[in-house]
Amino acid sequence: MSAPLSAAEQETLLHLARAALVAAAAQANPPPVAAASLTPALQARGTSFVTLTEAGRLRGCIGGLHAERALYADVQLHAAQAALNDPRFLPVTPAEVSSIAIEISVLTEPQPLAYADSAELPGKLRPHVDGVVLHQGQRRATFLPQVWERVESAEQFLDLLCDKLGLRPQAWRRAHLPVETYQVLSFAEAQPPQPPGPA
Question: Could you read off the pLDDT of 100-112 as tens digits, one per residue?
Answer without folding.
Answer: 999 999 999 999 9
